[in-house]
Amino acid sequence: MQVRGLLLLLALILLAATAEAGKNKKEKVKKDGSECEDWRWGPCVPTSKDCGLGYREGTCKDESKKLKCKIPCNWKKKFGADCKYKFESWGGCSAQTGMKTRSGILKKALYNAQCEEIVYVTKPCSSKIKSKSKGQSPLLLS
C-alpha cells in the first residue's frame, strides 16, 4: 500500500512539473509576440539573385517586422512561392502548339498573399515515345 501511495505522489509531482513547464512556454510567446493581430506581409524578397534566403516585411499599425524566408532556386512559377495549388494531371499533347496543359486550384495563400483562384501551366510535349510494355522476366517467357 505504501508503494502505491509513493507512486501516486510521484505521478502528481510529474504532472504538476509538466503543466508548469507548458505555462512558462506560453508566457514566453506572449512576451516576444506583438499584441497587433492584423499583420500585412509582403512577398519574400531574396537577399541576392532571384532565389535563396531572404526576408519578408510585415506591418501592423505603427509596428514593422522582418521574417526570414526562403525561395527555392528551382521555383520558376509565375504565381509566386506564397500561393499553394493542387494540380490536376497533365492533359494530352496539343498537335497545334506542341504543349500540354494542366490547371491548379488554390489550396492555401500564405501570409495573406494575393493569389489567383485557378492557374494554368504549360510545358513542351515529350519528344520520347514511352513504351507501355516493360521488360518481361525470363521466367515468364518460358
Describe the structure.
This protein is α+β, with helices and mostly antiparallel strands and about 140 residues long. Among the domains are: about 35-70, Pleiotrophin/Midkine, N-terminal domain (Heparin-binding Growth Factor, Midkine, Chain A); about 75-125, no CATH class. Helix content is about 25%, strand content about 30%. The protein is built from 2 helices and 7 strands, in the order αβββββββα. The chain has helices spanning about 1-30, 140, and strands at about 40, 45, 50-60, 65-70, 85, 100-110, 120-125. The strands form 2 sheets. Strands 1, 2, 3 and 4 form a 4-stranded antiparallel sheet that branches. Strands 5-6-7 form a 3-stranded antiparallel sheet, with no helix packed on it. The protein is elongated. The termini are far apart. About 0% of the residues are buried. The model is unreliable at about 25-30 (pLDDT under 50). It is found in: Secreted. It holds the Pfam family PTN_MK_N. GO terms for molecular function: growth factor activity; heparin binding. Belongs to the pleiotrophin family. Keywords: Developmental protein, Disulfide bond, Growth factor, Heparin-binding, Mitogen, Secreted, Signal.
DSSP strand tally? 7
**Biggest beta-sheet profile:** 4 strands, antiparallel
Classify the secondary structure makeup into a structural class.
alpha+beta
Radius of gyration (Å): 27 Å
Averaging pLDDT over every residue, what do you get? Answer: 77
SSE pattern, N- to C-terminal:
HEEEEEEEH
Shape: elongated
Helix content: 10-25%
What is the rounded distance between the termini?
74 Å
Number of helices: 2
